[in-house]
Amino acid sequence: MKKILFLLMVFTISISTAFAEENLDSGDIENIETTISDEENNLILNNDDFESLNVYSEVIEAGKPEEIDDGYYKTIGQKIKIKVLDKRFLGKEYSVFYYLEDGINSRLPLYDELKVGDKVYAYGILENGILQVDAISYYDKTPWVLLIFLIFASLIVLIGRKNGLKALISLVLTILMIFWFLIPGILSGKNIILLTIGVCSVVILVTFIIVSGFSKKTLVAIIGTIGGIVAAAIIGALFSHLMRLTGINEHARMISVAYAGEGEMISFKNVMLSAIMISAMGACMDVGMSIASALNELKSKKKDITKRELIKSGMNIGRDVMGTMTNTLILAYVGSAMLCILLYNINGFDLSFVLNAEDITDEVLKSLSGSIGLVATIPITAILGGILLGSGMVSNKDGIKQQDNKDENENIEIPVKYFKGWFWKKV
């Protein structure tokens, strides 16, 4: 029992680094449109004589909004002059027209008016060493993103204090795992399912240890959460096959353009399953730790509580948590698909058609698979918590049951290699 947490840690770290190369199925990308739109051109790179890129720039002149007729549509925009701040083209100046309204639908505003001093990203084409800037891609929002993150981090530390700081550290580590390991692994052709399970396992393990330390409570929460995520992945894989989903949407088509001529294509169906696991992870972690903490607290208040009583209490706690957490997942996915739902309703499509549209069905599958994973976390955590945290009852010579005095919440010992030998270190 004392070695379980150590072995689990070794296993999860190992699986995250030992992934088989994936044999990608080209059948997932049949019928992908190959017509390249202007937006998709932004992703075409690494051509010997041609490169499209976005360069960081500053607005040095900004005209007043005016109407322009390009021969097809009348629209409103600004004449803008920018100075490139990118090191490769530092100081170069370009004049572009910045569209403020959609040319097809003048009631649809695109962007706010730019002012002198605004930082922007300008879209350009580098051909034979010459940069030609054609348009402004978007306004630089980085300072405001950093500001809201700083507010978020400050509130966590201010209210949570030591625990808040731990939560913030675990959040940063989670982001780093996703962007440093998961995304590069997917792009390099690793097995997406195994990679995601490995990354999720490491994130769960590290987060819970940082927040709660080494204990049986932590072990219960870790195993319960991983079990819920695996359940979500299994349900997602099964029903994506039954529904014949491909995982292909507008972003997938853009990726397919970027990968044109670059070898085997990413399996978009597996990316969809990866998204299910990543999306469900937060809710499953919340439920797993909530139940494990509650059971551990019950054990500390009532030393003689039995395994059966703890399991029953864990299930009751889980049922209360389940309602609100399921709503959280469902509403998150509905919010992400809101524009698609509005579009289908405006066009007068009936509910049956909407539910069979792949971009909607993808979100339905993600939300329901994640919710099933969340529900599965409850019995796994409750049963395991009851077994590991519950007291063992023994009978005395008169046949009367009494509490075994063994401390069920003793510290877990893990082997630590030191020089040439092994010894047990208390943590």
Count of domain modules: 2
What's the order of the H and E elements? HEEEEEEHHHHHHHHHEEEE
Number of strands: 10
Oligomerization category of the chains in this entry: single chain
Unreliable residue runs: 13-47, 394-399, 405-427
Distance between the termini: 15 Å
Shape: elongated
Rg estimate, integer Å = 27 Å
Task: Give an account of the 3D structure.
The chain is of the alpha+beta class and 427 residues long. It has 2 domains: 4-24 and 178-413, Multidrug efflux transporter AcrB transmembrane fold (Up-down Bundle), CATH 1.20.1640; 40-139, OB fold (Dihydrolipoamide Acetyltransferase, E2P), CATH 2.40.50. It is 53% helix and 17% strand. The protein has 10 helices and 10 strands. The chain has helices at 4-17, 142-187, 192-212, 216-242, 250-258, 268-301, 307-336, 338-346, 351-356, 358-389, and strands spanning 50-62, 66-69, 74-84, 93-99, 119-127, 130-139, 393-395, 401-403, 413-418, 421-426. Strands 1, 2, 3, 4, 5 and 6 form a 6-stranded antiparallel beta sheet that branches. A hairpin with a 4-residue loop joins strand 2 and strand 3 (74-84). The protein starts with a helix and ends with a strand. The model is unreliable at 13-47, 394-399 and 405-427 (pLDDT under 50).
Structural key phrases:
427 residues, alpha+beta, OB fold (Dihydrolipoamide Acetyltransferase, E2P), Multidrug efflux transporter AcrB transmembrane fold, elongated, 17% strand, disordered C terminus, 6-stranded antiparallel sheet, 10 helices, single chain, two-stranded antiparallel ribbon
